[in-house]
Amino acid sequence: MATTSTAASLQQTILRRVLASGDARRLHVRFSAAVLDRYRAMPNAELIRTRTVGRVGLPRQWSLDVGIVEDGPDGVVLHATVEDLLTRLPEAERDHWIAHLLGEAPNVSASMNSLSAQLSLRSVFFLHGFPMRQGG
Known about the structure:
The structure is a single chain. Strands 2-3-4-5-1-6 form a 6-stranded antiparallel β-sheet. The radius of gyration is 14 Å and the shape is globular. Mean pLDDT is 80; it is low at 122-136. The chain has one domain. It is α+β, with helices and mostly antiparallel strands. The two termini are 13 Å apart. Helices cover 36% and strands 26% of the residues. Helix 1 (4-21) packs parallel to helix 5. The protein contains 6 helices and 6 strands.
């Protein structure tokens, strides 16, 4: 598990790159894990995760990769980039995710694996075949 200072350093690096490029698509947005309840209730939905990263979606329709933080003050928190929310989350799903949006809180960590993948310009291992296992 990443220390808060290491995750904060990665978040600062991402923000520096966003500000230098003028492109906010790499910024991460935080959501309550309750956002997944809707998909757990769908028999055809796919939920795959490790301890720090996951994917939710409907097979052959859409999928969204998320970072997972289990030890934050808000309980389990998911985070995704603005870019992924714009390009991979269907418009019909957006209000549901917005309803579970969490504000930024001081001293909140982020998934080190997810942030590292974002730093490597859409890392191949994260988006194309990273071996995720169910449960944990």
